[in-house]
Design brief:
Blueprint (H helix, E strand, L loop, with lengths): L2 H6 L12 E10 L2 E11 L4 E5 L6 H9 L6 E6 L2 E2 L5 H7 L1 E3 L12 H7 L9 H7 L2 H20 L15 H13 L5 E5 L7 H17 L3 E5 L3 H7 L2 E6 L2 E6 L1 H6 L1 H8 L1
Parallel strand pairs: 3-8, 3-9, 6-7, 7-8
Antiparallel strand pairs: 1-2, 1-4, 4-5, 9-10
Helix pairs in contact: 4-7, 6-7
Length: 269
């Protein structure tokens, strides 16, 4: 399914159970230091959940727990109602939970196009090595479909002109768009964005905004947004969770969060 297919899909209920993503009482410790304590959040398909807080509040640690990079010391992670706490990061990614990183992580020795294709190739093409050797029609058809899907994502992310450029030679803003494109290449069901505007130029921020809105309109993906640009968070989020010292300080709509005196004192003021 392409981004266009997603955007044209019929909307479904945004508030029906279960949520696309839920954390229940997540706790994480580092050598006795509490990084997260009893953190519970929910993100629903067709909505953007903003996650804000000062440096060291535990935002990226929570992303690591959700994506399977770090096993929490307490609590559970639920993916569309299923407990996936014991599932690997690879399993979660293949099931549709995709993320970007605070420090962009691209395959520097691959081209931009190859970086995006990597996100789709775990399916295989059927027929194994023999199908490759004889260039079977099925394999060729699947390859054309993948490349067409990736070409659309390249266009939407403004990467078509650099599709054959090695990702390791790109400036930071463009590399971030490559990472975003890789996350979008296979129609994610949950998308975790960690500081996505960092290093982006004005045009790139506009493309990022458009990508988030397309996902929101399709109502098939839940987006969790960690971002220090509060204006960007408030413009794109349906709800916002505020973390402070590893705990949930407040949660609510954007207007409620902006008016919350505890939040203003701790972070927004």
């Amino acid at each position: 399914m392409t981004i266009t297919d997603l955007a044209e899909a019929s909307p479904g209920p945004a508030d029906g159970p279960p949520p696309a993503l839920a954390t229940r009482g997540i706790g994480v410790r580092f050598a006795g230091t509490v990084a997260l304590r009893d953190v519970s959040i929910e993100a629903r398909s067709g909505q953007v959940l903003g996650l804000i807080g000062p440096n060291g509040a535990g935002k990226t640690t929570l992303f690591d727990a959700i994506s399977g990079i770090r096993r929490p010391d307490a609590g559970t992670i639920e993916f569309e109602g299923e407990d996936v706490t014991g599932r690997s990061a690879v399993w979660r990614a293949r099931a549709g939970l995709r993320r970007t990183f605070q420090r962009q992580q691209v395959f520097g020795r691959l081209t931009v196009e190859e970086n995006l294709l990597c996100a789709t190739e775990w399916h295989g093409g059927g027929g194994g090595i023999l199908a490759d050797l004889v260039a079977s029609p099925t394999r060729r058809r699947l390859e054309r479909r993948r490349r067409a899907q990736v070409a659309e994502v390249l266009e939407s992310c403004g990467l078509t002109d650099v599709r054959h450029t090695l990702a390791g030679s790109l400036p930071i803003g463009t590399a971030r768009m490559v990472e975003l494109g890789r996350a979008l290449a296979e129609s994610p069901r949950i998308l975790l964005l960690d500081e996505p505007t960092s290093g982006l130029g004005e045009a790139e921020v506009a493309r990022l905004s458009a990508a988030i809105r397309r996902l929101n309109a399709a109502r098939r993906c839940a987006v969790v947004l960690v971002e220090h640009d509060i204006t960007f968070v408030m413009e794109h989020s349906d709800r916002v969770v505020v973390l402070q010292r590893g705990e949930v300080l407040a949660e609510g709509g954007t207007a409620d969060i902006q008016a919350n005196p505890q939040v203003r004192e701790a972070y927004l003021g």
